[in-house]
Design a protein that fits this description.
Radius of gyration: 19 Å
Order of helices and strands: EHHHHEEEHH
Number of strands: 4
Number of helices: 6
Mean pLDDT: 93
């Protein structure tokens, strides 16, 4: 069975649409995390935005927020639930990374099958995975759901008054 690199997803518009939705969902998730950083640190939202996007990696941003949460005196906010949602979003990032950093290919014998190869994994199980639009859309739905929950827990709407 042979595989060739993909250069686009014109042959699978549903998958292309789902991946586009994933990009937007993750931008929303990062915005939610930035607002969480503002809430937990007591910074106004503009200051938090400027700092958040200067932290170089998603993992470093998450660790920074979690470190702030440990020392935070939350008052009316549910610190445990907020930390849990930050972790839930973070847990989803490995799937996103697989799709973003994988080598996208099509199967020569099944041209409607899109796969990614993750060469960071050892040869064998998990190195090659088929990617289907419903799987990506399920991921998108989970990212959005956890981000909305986080936004509710931190009372994101209230942060707009800090601008």
């Amino acid at each position: 069975m042979g595989y060739n690199d993909l250069t686009n997803l014109d042959r699978d518009p549903k998958l292309a649409n789902a991946l586009g939705n994933m990009v937007v969902a993750w931008a929303y998730a990062e915005s939610s995390l930035c607002c969480t950083m503002a809430r937990v640190s007591g910074m106004n939202i503009n200051m938090a935005l400027m700092g958040f996007y200067r932290i170089p990696t998603f993992e470093a941003r998450r660790k920074f927020i979690q470190a702030l949460i440990l020392e935070w005196k939350p008052g009316k906010f549910d610190k445990t639930a907020i930390a849990k949602e930050v972790d839930s979003i973070s847990d989803l990032s490995s799937t996103r990374n697989d799709w973003i950093h994988g080598v996208w290919c099509f199967n020569e014998t099944k041209p409607d099958e899109s796969v990614i190869f993750d060469f960071r994994r050892p040869d064998g199980k998990g190195r090659r995975k088929e990617v289907k639009a419903p799987d990506v859309q399920n991921h998108v739905n989970a990212v959005i759901s956890h981000s909305k929950t986080l936004n509710r827990l931190i009372d994101r709407a209230d942060l707009r008054g800090d601008e």
